[in-house]
Amino acid sequence: MDLNNKIIMLWFCLIISGLTSCEGQNKQQTGGPCEGCEAIFEYKNKRLTTVDTLPGFYQNKPQLKVTGTVLKKDGKTPAENVIVYIYHTNRQGIYETKGNETGWGKRHGIFRGWVKTGKDGRYTFYTFRPASYPDRSEPEHIHITVKEPTKKEYYLDEYLFDDDPLLTPNRRIQLPDRGGSGIVKPVMEHGILTIKRNIILGKNIPFY
Domain with 173 in it: what CATH number? Predict the structure, then answer.
């Protein structure tokens, strides 16, 4: 092989290598950067079902039911075997810990839970309404991460309460609606405050 052919082959290999690298990087970046998203795997030996009750549910008020359906990107088909992870502050706006937490539990606190959807895509958490941060810099919110069977985990827009005065019009228009709108309207159903949110996988998610 003469020198010119060697140079051509070298450039060809570099181009192919670069394309493969970029493709792999995009696959790894579903949703973009996500600090703490790996916490979705910290359920340890817990058998995940479609319903979870978070610590503090019975001790705090107002009690809250968080429920809805996880849908595929078409917004119609229920998505099965999707893990949904949530966490939030206590009634004082703090990510409360006991001191023996490991992993992301040190940051996310004790009020967190996991479910896995069934064939109907339904999910439900029983918890309590969190408070805004003590400095009131953020509206009340519940963080959420999802893990599809064939995708890297990614975060969605937080659950935000429509009746929260800190959820100003300016904040509302800046929301990216990852997975669909996270703004929910609390209503009393069967004696418990209930918020409903259907999640659309991949909606407004980068590199999906």
Answer: 2.60.130.10
**Burial (Cβ within 10 Å: 0-12, 13-18, ≥19) of residue 175:** middle
Instruction: Kindly state whether residue 2 falls inside one of the protein's structural domains.
Output: no
Is residue 152 included in any domain, yes or no? yes
The boundaries of the domain holding residue 91 are: 39-200
Parallel, antiparallel or unpaired: strands 63-71 and 122-128 = antiparallel
Domain annotation covers residue 10: no
- In the chain, count of helices (H) and strands (E)? 3, 12
* Count: domains in the chain: 1
> How would you write the pLDDT of the chain (208 residues) with one tens digit per residue?
454 444 445 444 444 444 444 444 445 589 999 999 999 999 999 999 999 999 999 999 999 999 999 999 999 999 999 999 999 999 999 999 999 999 999 999 999 999 999 999 999 999 999 999 999 999 999 999 999 999 999 999 999 999 999 999 999 999 999 999 999 999 999 999 999 999 999 999 999 9
The reply to whether 27 falls in a domain is no
Tell me the whole-structure pTM to 2 decimals: 0.87
